[in-house]
Write a structure and sequence with these properties.
By secondary structure, the protein is an alpha+beta fold. It contains 17 helices and 23 strands.
């Protein structure tokens, strides 16, 4: 029976809520009873909730009981499973990265292994998400998998474990005095894991300067960001503040502890995928003139979410406030409030942007993410390189390489030889794939315009001659773009032997971001000038 609630005359907003809830219930039940085909009540309700929340922002989301484990993974970094990344490649699902020390790696699963059966049941046609669900489970429980490797079918027995992925997959010394810490997420141990890495590098490995890498870190728990900024600023310093709709969620977070180091030069690496808690750290250290920010402008997410419990083990994650960096700015880039129903959010208008001052008087703005002091512009990959990645040709070659080569040198010493690249070139030339060049596509457009204007006939021979230079040539382009292809191929091969930590270590010597960070940290006059540090 539809519920009925009598609203008070002085509560018109409540009346609207109750009226629409009653109408929704009536529509929901009418569909269930009268629709021509049987409906799925659970799916209908989730679709309705998702559509409603979509009108708010992308971060306010409903989390049904079936997705609670995925939510826990995002906030804690742990789950029950085999410890491996998997990927859909066409009509098959393969292992792409077994995590070192976890069941998949211990059972001898390799990157490139294709899933055929799980617990005796064929998995042909299943998506990577469906297979992932079958691989997860209670720690201590057993499962069997059959995988295809090259032309062999292999049976593997595994015991699921509590897989806890550290948000710091790698830290180490770049050179004799500059340390490096990679932070991939802000889960519940992010602050303590960064502190552990920092302490080891400083006390045991001679670190005098540090690079904190937040590239592609989408954020997580705000309190963990506060802990990390606290490592470099005095106790009592305001790090971030929250302001909600009615004041109930207004909070100011100050550094609760004594800093680990107030003088050590710091460089923070960011890119367009550094968001949320990553922007609290980078924006906070920037506003307090405690670090030089290097990279590209960050994502621009200045909203704070809180998970709220519902019945039936479900949750709703709700945007409850905006956060503000120490200078008082909110770096939120998209305006989700001032838009019409169904419209996409647009960037905050330039005319509404405000200027703020850092601790040392440098000018920063709101509404555009965190803009780095030193910008790094990376060239786009060639069409050939992008195709080799998209078609998994580099991935498949690295898989073959691993089974033909037992060992390779340590990550930072490994280099692909000319003979190795020549072998890769021959492999690529044997593959059946096509690609285009941007220049060739522009020439085709020019041809069409010239035909429409009756100019092509007079320039036919010149056009044909020029077009030859822009047509794709695998052999030519494999040589032309050897450097960028080699970087990706080396990374893929190293991952086969030394896992994710090896990939990161290998990048330390030729990563443009890190090279720039080293230059700045080694030039203290420039470092202090950027941060307007007066002596």
């Amino acid at each position: 029976m539809p519920f009925k609630i009598q609203a008070q005359e002085n509560e018109p907003s409540d009346f609207e809520i109750y009226k629409n809830l009653e109408l929704f219930e009536m529509v929901y039940k009418t569909i269930d009873v009268s629709y021509v085909d049987p409906s799925n009540p659970g799916q209908l309700m989730k679709a309705a909730i998702d559509a409603m929340l979509k009108e708010l922002d992308p971060y306010t989301v409903y989390i049904p009981e079936s997705l609670i484990e995925d939510y826990k993974l995002m906030t804690t970094g742990q789950y029950g499973g085999i410890g491996a990344l998997i990927q859909q490649q066409g009509d098959k699902v393969v292992v792409t990265n077994p995590h070192e020390g976890f069941p998949a790696q211990k059972a001898g699963l390799y990157a490139g292994d294709q899933f055929i059966e799980i617990d005796g049941k064929n998995v042909e046609g299943l998506t990577s998400s469906e297979i992932s669900e079958k691989l997860k489970g209670k720690p201590g429980s057993e499962l069997s998998v059959k995988v295809k490797r090259q032309d062999q079918l292999l049976d593997k027995k595994l015991v699921r474990e509590e897989v806890k992925l550290s948000p710091v997959p790698y830290y180490g010394m770049i050179n004799e005095d500059i340390g490096y810490i990679k932070l991939t997420s802000f889960t519940q141990t992010a602050g303590s894991d960064v502190l552990k890495a920092f302490t080891d590098l400083k006390k045991n490995q001679g670190m005098k300067k540090v690079v904190l890498d937040l590239r592609n870190n989408g954020g997580g728990l705000l309190i963990e960001a506060v802990k990390i900024v606290n490592m470099f600023v005095p106790k009592g310093t305001t790090i971030v503040s929250m302001k909600g709709r009615d004041g109930k969620n207004d909070l100011v977070y100050e550094a609760p502890l004594k800093a680990q180091d107030l003088q050590m030069p710091v460089a923070v690496l960011v890119n367009e995928n550094s968001a949320s808690a990553s922007e609290i750290v980078s924006g906070g250290l920037q506003d307090l003139d405690r670090a030089v920010i290097i990279g590209t402008t960050t994502f621009g997410k200045g909203l704070v979410q809180r998970p709220l419990d519902l019945k039936y083990n479900a949750k709703v994650k709700v945007t409850i406030a905006k956060y503000y960096t120490p200078s008082g700015r909110c770096i939120q880039k998209l305006d989700y409030t001032n838009r019409n129903t169904g419209d996409k959010a647009s960037e905050v208008s330039d005319s509404l942007l405000n200027k703020f001052k850092t601790k040392n008087g440098r000018e920063v703005i709101d509404g555009r993410g965190v803009e780095p002091e030193i910008k790094i512009e990376l060239p786009d990959y060639s069409r050939l390189t992008a195709t080799l990645v998209a078609k998994n040709i580099i991935f498949d070659y690295a898989t073959q390489y691993r089974f033909k080569t037992d060992t390779i040198s340590a990550p930072r010493a490994y280099e692909l030889t000319d003979a190795d690249y020549a072998a890769f070139t021959q492999y690529v030339l044997q593959q059946d794939f096509e690609y285009s060049t941007a220049s060739g596509e522009m020439m085709e457009k020019l041809k069409k315009i010239a035909e429409d204007e009756n100019y092509l006939e007079d320039a036919q021979s010149e056009y044909a001659e020029l077009m030859k230079k822009f047509e794709p040539s695998k052999e030519r382009d494999l040589n032309k773009f050897k450097a960028e292809i080699t970087d990706i191929l080396e990374d893929e091969i190293i991952g086969r032997y030394y896992f994710n930590s090896g990939r990161i270590a290998h990048s330390l010597d030729d990563d443009p971001y890190i090279i720039e960070a080293i230059k700045i940290l080694n030039d203290q006059s420039r470092y202090k000038s950027i941060l307007n540090i007066q002596e």
